């Protein structure tokens, strides 16, 4: 039987938070770097520490330049505002963060018409042929124009699935041949890089712009970076100011980002623990994905009920794509994984079943219906 919440509280055990890798806390090294950061007014003259972070990130991504933003949503929005004219259509895989988790800002503020693409090349992935078909050809002046492809690596809603360099390059080449620009939402590109054993720049070939997050697995308290050409970054800086993202002494937080970039290889530990968690859940009868990175998806017939039960025994999880999402991160140890498995216990008969909704690593596409999952995804 599963342990009761009363028994857990009596033992004084703290909850194990697996909702997201955004719950990480800045390390002592980050806090020290933040306290000692060399700073300046970034809106007026550029902050020296922030500029160092931008240039270093651009180099890692194989881009000419980059710009720090407070959030990944703002960074994606800046890229879309730069690429789209009002009324232009843009393509993105079903379940992409820019489609489902950014409050419609792609349409509301960037003026783009979203066109979701089925995952015809694997969970979270689209094929070159699908891009060519969706891009179409020039029509009459009143026809909808498709001008942009947005990709995501890793694909969050599909359980952190990874797109390999050759897959990304072929899709980006198809988009460019169809005269589409390409934006890559690489919020967790660091995870993809570690999982594949390739440098991050190998995963950005053919992209006009790339967004990366520092505040997820890398553990910085906030911040993302959007990279591209020098001309793009010049315009992006204006757009950031327009959106309220201009900061003054930004080096205070950029310093944590620099420390974060020194610890990319640590993500391998999160991946290992995610596999241990998935294996343990499978042994206990749960229907789980095989994680490619640090995200585990559980398929169950009663998402709301299981989330309440998990919470009651001290395991915090979140809904995602019609499934339950568990994310390993820097605050999670091997002992935490063992404890989480003990608290969750075996799947009770009749409760676990493959998800009928979602785009997890099982290959199912995100469609409406067939699940009692909450309507909203949990976001990053």
Report on the structure:
The chain has 380 residues and is of the alpha/beta class. Helix content is 37%, strand content 15%. The protein is built from 14 helices and 13 strands. The strands form 3 sheets. It has a 7-stranded mixed sheet with strand order 2-8-7-6-5-3-4, sandwiched between helices. The protein is globular. The relative contact order is 0.18.
Features:
single chain, 380 residues, alpha/beta, 7-stranded mixed sheet, 4-stranded antiparallel sheet, 14 helices, 13 strands, 15% strand, globular
The largest sheet is:
7 strands, mixed
Mean pLDDT metric: 91
Number of helices: 14
| Helix coverage percent | 25-40%
Question: What structural class do the secondary elements suggest?
Answer: alpha/beta
Q: What's the alpha carbon Rg, rounded to whole Å? A: 21 Å
Report the count of strand segments. Answer: 13
SSE sequence, one letter per element: HEHHEHEHHEHEHEHEEHHHEEHEEEH
Biggest sheet: strands side by side, in what order? 2-8-7-6-5-3-4
Distance between the termini: 32 Å
Portion of residues in beta strands equals 15-25%
Categorize the overall geometry. Answer: globular
**Stretches with pLDDT under 50, minimum 5 residues:** 7-11, 355-376
Give a topology summary.
Layout: H1 5-10, E1 16-17, H2 28-35, H3 48-61, E2 65-69, H4 72-83, E3 89-93, H5 97-100, H6 105-108, E4 113-117, H7 128-135, E5 146-152, H8 165-177, E6 181-186, H9 189-196, E7 209-213, E8 224-228, H10 230-242, H11 251-261, H12 267-283, E9 287-288, E10 295-299, H13 303-312, E11 315-316, E12 318-320, E13 323-327, H14 334-344
Parallel strand pairs: 1-11, 3-4, 3-5, 5-6, 6-7
Antiparallel strand pairs: 2-8, 7-8, 9-10, 10-13, 12-13
